[in-house]
Amino acid sequence: MIDPPRRARRTAPGPTRLRALDGLRLLAALMVAAYHYGGRGGEVSDAWGSSAADQFPALHGYFAYGCLGVQVFFVISGFVICMSGWGRPLKSFFASRAARLLPAYWAAVLLVTAVFALPVVAYEAVAPSDALVNLTMLQQPLGVDRVLGVCWTLWAEVRFYALFALCVVLPGVTRRRVVLFCAGWTLAAVVAEAAHEPLLDLVLMPEYAPFFIGGVGLYLVHRDRRDPYAWGIAGVGWLIGQHYAVRELWQAPGPDVFAHRSSFGIVLVVTLGFLAVAAVALGLLGRADWRWLTVAGALTYPFYLVHEHLGWVVIRALHQELGLSSWATFALTVASMLLLARLLNRYVERPLTPRLRDALAGRRRR
Q: What is the DSSP letter of 50?
């Protein structure tokens, strides 16, 4: 048989807004919020006045799976970074990523630090020096106290951006180079796992690499759904990713365990995350083209930054001080964090992001 000509294959059109991906971002963020508000112990228990398991006896076990929203974020990030880096020079790629991350992040660090410094707030703020270091986004490798609990995921994202930029964007993005990058990173991450070398673990991130790589593979699927290498990259990312997710997050049942996460449940959530991004890649969710999804995508990042620590403050105020029910408190806390995210997007991100991007890219605004 004669293979069909290359031009007959489906290839991705020019840059378009994948609104379904925006909706998936927000869904992943809400999963993480459910975990932070009702799926774990720790300081959120102080906010409720008792264990979140007592507040949500029927659902706290399901909320515990919400932490896997982070892995779904990493798959989406692999997809988006490959898409945004395609055809861009390194300077433009760097400017785009920095401008996307920093304005809302700086605002969130300053806001949480200021709120926790208030005498009426029961939580302790980090030291002023540590708060200043947090503005660099390098507090984790420096061993400095974090202002935002979720910022550990940003450190993983930054390392992924650096690897992709140096190995793919700098020499010029091509399909062949992306495929080699994914294959090389997968093999190197496996070697790092076997070597037990901290420096290799730091750079190659064996436990997170499969999710980023799987997302990159799914973007290649989006460009050409008949590309066997793309499907192979995505499939290997899923196979290795579920292994790490089970290894890191599985919890045996016991009296001291907040909620039992089964291996089946973890694999199921990871699989659904990959399948959801695959559905976007294949255009199966093309009808989900509603404008409000673009708004949802814009709110996701600032919501993710502020929801945990400021959520504690709101939960305590609504539940312990005003006496609202657990579910009313949960719903109003999520709504208030979404409203705050809207304000951050409107008054911080929208004016500052394009200015910072243009300044870093060396473009003058008229």
A: S
